[in-house]
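ok new one. same drill as before - structure tokens go in, u give me an amino acid for every spot. 442 of them this time. try not to just spam alanines like last time pls lmao
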């Protein structure tokens, strides 16, 4: 009995030691001290100044036109799903036209899916023949063409890259992709890790300067799964020191990450349930949102947000000190949906007038209120009034105000100093999508 008790005690100690060692290893993996380079810090500032980007979710999942999770949601085996590649021929794809339409919106960068969860690479990789050059009759590297067009039109290019893969047999099975027909006896993270790093090396070597790598998929495994992010992040920063790293893991940022993203939520909010427990960091911030209801193209989803809604989303995001990454799902024929192109044009018309109050700003001195938000650049504080049914507006503000004008025409707006702020006497009840008052601070 004593021997059995001793064995139980020894086993408990061994288990506790193993648990502590595993936890320590996991913690070390994500808390290795990262010192950003001068180029990286400069890139972070530029990223914050840009304020607005366009997300493109495009792959062979555009063929069935049911969104980017089609294979997983419908439990389609790879042997059948792969047939989409053999028919993928986006004959109307024109990189220059895409970039021109996106630039017309006022967006400063593009983030495109280089490889999504289905494992299909939208670039000419040598690591797998499951890519747009080798597996499709199109035989063109759309990422290369897009990179060239972005460089010519002065738009930065970022790459979305999936950490999970429903196609490769060496990817360790996680929460998703259980019914795609991958063999269960070939899972090997060392092999898969090499594959990812080789692809990332290609992306950061063959396509010119890249603004950021936008990772997704960490949520497919529990927190104790060691993705070896520190090693992977170090590789990226070595290949291109100015390339930023973000990861859509819905947690607080790990060491080595350069910006923090929030999926379908403004920073600090958690209406989707994705960001529970995540706090706002001091890193540059980005909110990603869909223009309609899906990321990848879904033929019956025509529920596009209005231009007014999109403009107000840009304004709210900037007021919360973040960038907006607005998504479009391109069609299988290589075109951006006509409705999306029209929205881009209309957003650009507004940004051409009011971009000064967005680009290069940071979240303003006045926190978000029911009436709107504020942004700041130097001694200029911009009040973005999006919902006010009165001509009188109290603004809590510690700084002294030198002058107040309507941004659009610089006409004077009367104001009175009040305890803890000022009282604005607006010339009218605001009816614009965003009525902007420019305050010059002393």
């Amino acid at each position: 009995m004593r021997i059995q008790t001793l064995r139980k005690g020894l086993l408990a100690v061994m288990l506790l030691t193993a648990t502590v060692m595993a936890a320590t290893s996991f913690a070390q993996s994500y808390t290795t001290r990262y010192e950003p380079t001068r180029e990286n810090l400069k890139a972070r500032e530029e990223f914050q100044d840009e304020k607005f980007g366009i997300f493109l979710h495009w792959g062979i999942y555009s063929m069935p036109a049911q969104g980017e999770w089609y294979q997983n949601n419908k439990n389609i085996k790879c042997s059948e799903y792969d047939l989409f590649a053999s028919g993928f021929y986006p004959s109307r794809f024109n990189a220059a036209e895409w970039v021109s339409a996106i630039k017309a919106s006022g967006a400063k960068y593009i983030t495109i899916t280089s490889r999504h969860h289905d494992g299909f690479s939208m670039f000419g990789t040598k690591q797998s023949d499951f890519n747009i050059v080798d597996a499709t009759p199109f035989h063109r590297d759309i990422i290369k063409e897009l990179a060239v067009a972005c460089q010519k039109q002065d738009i930065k290019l970022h790459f979305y890259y999936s950490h999970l893969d429903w196609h490769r047999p060496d990817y360790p099975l996680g929460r998703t992709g259980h019914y795609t027909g991958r063999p269960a006896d070939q899972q090997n993270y060392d092999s898969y890790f090499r594959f990812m790093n080789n692809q990332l090396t290609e992306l950061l070597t063959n396509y010119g300067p890249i603004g950021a790598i936008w990772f997704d998929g960490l949520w497919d495994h529990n927190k104790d799964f060691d993705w070896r992010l520190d090693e992977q992040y170090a590789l990226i920063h070595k290949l291109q020191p100015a390339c930023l790293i973000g990861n859509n893991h819905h947690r607080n940022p790990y060491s080595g990450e350069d910006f923090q993203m929030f999926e379908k939520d403004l920073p600090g909010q958690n209406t989707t349930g994705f960001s529970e427990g995540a706090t706002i960091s001091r890193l540059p911030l980005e909110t990603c949102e869909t223009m309609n209801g899906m990321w990848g193209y879904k033929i019956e989803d025509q529920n596009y947000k209005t231009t007014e809604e999109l403009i107000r989303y840009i304004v709210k995001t900037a007021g919360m000190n973040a960038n907006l990454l607005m998504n479009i799902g391109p069609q299988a024929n290589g075109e951006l949906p006509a409705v999306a192109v029209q929205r881009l044009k209309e957003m650009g018309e507004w940004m051409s007038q009011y971009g000064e109050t967005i680009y290069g700003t940071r979240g303003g001195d006045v926190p978000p209120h029911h009436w709107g938000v504020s942004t700041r650049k130097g001694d200029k504080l911009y009040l973005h009034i999006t919902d006010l049914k009165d001509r009188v507006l109290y603004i809590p503000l510690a700084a002294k105000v030198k002058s107040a004008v309507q941004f659009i025409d610089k006409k004077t707006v009367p104001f009175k100093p009040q305890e803890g702020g000022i009282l604005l006497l607006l010339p009218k009840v605001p009816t614009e999508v965003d009525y902007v008052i420019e305050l010059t601070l002393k």
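The CA atoms of residues 43 and 288 lie 19 Å apart. and btw The first helix runs from residue 2 to 31.
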